[in-house]
What we know:
Strand content: 25-35%
Largest sheet: 6 strands, mixed
Mean pLDDT: 79
Helix content: 10-25%
Low-confidence stretches: 156-162, 164-172
Amino acid sequence: MKQTxxxxxxxxxxxxxxxxxxxxxxxxxxxxxxMIAEAIREQIQGATFIAVDMMTIRxxxxxxxxxxxxxxxxLAQDALARFDxxxxxxxxxxxxxxxxxxxxxxxxKENDGVSRRKKKIHDLGPKKMKIKHGGKHGIETEIIGxxxxxxxxxxxxxxxxxxxxxxxxxxxxxKHISEI
Length: 180
């Protein structure tokens, strides 16, 4: 594990454009291949293991050994709700800010060649919040270190990318406001 000075790590902000082309090739109800995940894959260099739901947007950047989490902006939440229900979505742009960076983990193989444990790439220590005041966006924060934001796990591993409307647990029968 690298001893890493967490004060040197920054959680970047990103402006992500979801174009008509991206919307047309995205998969409904799939947190890894939805329109926002596809836009992130195209627009953030090196982003992998991308997952998007109604609460969070998460991706890793292996080159840096970091995993980033952001709260899903309200505009994106509405677009996801519409898209997953089969309602037309117009192109839009979101801003990912106020994120959380944690260390990625490596699978460590034992002498018999089987991966049995995980090891963090960086030692970032406990959560530390940095607050930036001013500017046209008011207060912005970034969190470095600590544990990942909890995510509800599906009942079976083969369903790990299925976004059943939102936080992977939305039930049928709910309607989007545009359907009422």
